[in-house]
Amino acid sequence: MRAVLKGAVAVSALLAVLPQNMAAAQGQSAGQQVDLLIRGGTIYDGSEGAKGFVGDVAVSGDRIVYVGPRATVSAGRIIEAKGKIVTPGFIDGHSHPDSSIYSPDAALRQVPQWIMQGATTLVMGVDGSGIGSGGGPIRSGVEIKDTFAQFTQQGIGPNVLAFVGYAPIRSRVIGEDDRPPTATELLAEKQMVAKAMCEGAFGFSTGLWYTPQFFSKTDELIELAREAAKRGGIYDTHQRDEATYSIGLINSVKEALRIGAEAGMPVHIGHLKALGPTVWGQSAEVIKLINEARARGQVVTADQYPYLANQTSLQAQIIPSWALDGGYPALIKRFNDPATLEKIKAETKANLARSNGAKSILFVASNQPWDGKRLDQVALEWKLDPVDAAIRILRQTDRQWVVVFSMSEPDVDAFMKQPWTFTGSDGSDGHPRISGTFPTKYQEFVRKRKVISISQFVRSSSGGPADFYKLDRRGYLKNGYFADIAVFDPAGYMPGSTYVNWKPLAKGVVATVINGKVAVDNGKLTNALSGRTLLHTPTPGSCL
Ligand SMILES: [Zn+2]
């Protein structure tokens, strides 16, 4: 392995001294032996405003050793890419691969949902969620080192990087209660953030929409964010309110910007959206706030999935937060108190309207008889008011996932056009975005509706996020960079998943190359498991 690596670097160095077209034209690389040649595709290299050009990409070991017009190398393997598009492997800025990546089954650890789309790097630990298989996307732990050691030992499909999430921190230290931390508890929380940062976390993430994270005040969050900022970390957030549930979308964006400004760190807003009819049209104001912050010198970015529906838990979507103080058992207790139940019902009714009504809520991925049906339909069948039907479901399970048709097309388009908006699937079981985000963005928003250019699609899914996360030699097709590459057919690159059937994988990927290994070959999984764990390097001297 070491010898292969050295060879790759030598070829790269040789080719790097000549302009790329010179090397090819003069045949300087003639006879050079490379492992893999992707030949004759239309190349978008991931840089801003890059135009596509027809050419070759050569790979030796885990590195790209040539990108340019026709290469005159001899290759161990050739992938014919004529008429196909060749891009850097896609980076998913917001992912929840929990149902696959911790599996004892190697076939699942490839996370086919993502690599079949050409995705090669996933950002985990977002929404304040934990790392490790300890209990679903919103819980589990903060043990980055242990979890990554397990990934490396067992093998995983894509590269991963992680944030340290606030949910397991607050749950472990304070529990599910609506109260601020004591001084001792705040210290314990800060130590957990610091430890994870020193283990290679890229920053501190929150999901302030979710209880118990919602119970935090901005000052507590600034204190914790500072522990990440000191070590070069990013503040990543599922913001407190994407609608008008508590402080409202605009104030929520202001809170995120304030946390970043006061802690002194970049801010990244996950799955940016205007959720529900009460805030439709507010994308303009949100974009203005972010552009103003950027003009002041603050580093602010966002990610977005190309769908009009969000996904969350039923209680997070419609139950008032105060009713979740103390967790699920406390909620059931409140349901059993008639006066409290009336109060919950009144507020749930208002939240349902904020969510675009009972017709907009689709039950998914919970192994319940009502999966695949909408709330209005279930209510009709049970001859109940939709609020009563929802409460009946919540009395039976605290893990009911819902897909909610909550967004307007003009807002989604406006956010997508921003140069600081990256692609982030927010994918987990139940929503077609898990395996359809990148092809949907390409087919719907580039080819069909022409909302963005192909160059911006590639940039927002590769070089843009790679620069923001400061990934070491990833996100671009460049000499010496790690060979993370996607090759897809422009017409056949399609999502297989729909709202009705979220499980089918994407189609049309000719190859997904991850660290030089072909992980998807002619649309088939190879079980390469060549993904790596990517670590943030803490600011020197910050982890003594
Ligand atoms: Zn989220």
What does this 3D model show about the protein?
- The protein has 544 residues and is an alpha/beta fold.
- The chain contains 20 helices and 21 strands.
- The strands form 4 sheets. Strands 1, 2, 3, 4, 5, 18, 19, 20 and 21 form a 9-stranded mixed sheet that branches.
- The longest helix has 17 residues.
- The N terminus is likely disordered.
- The structure holds zinc ion.
- The site of zinc ion has 6 residues, from loops.
Q: What tags apply to this protein structure?
A:
globular; 21 strands; nine-stranded mixed beta sheet; 20 helices; alpha/beta; disordered N terminus; single chain; binds zinc ion; 544 residues
Précis, in short:
The protein contains 20 helices and 21 strands.
Bound molecules: zinc ion
**How would you state the average pLDDT, rounded?**
93
What is the CA-based Rg, rounded?
24 Å
Q: Shape, please?
A: globular
Strand fraction equals 15-25%
SS-based structural class?
Answer: alpha/beta
Q: Given the structure, what is the number of helices?
A: 20
End-to-end distance: 33 Å
- Could you tell me the number of beta strands? 21
Uncertain runs with pLDDT below 50, 5 residues or more?
1-28
State the helicity in percent bands. 25-40%
* Main sheet: strands, sense, barrel: 9 strands, mixed
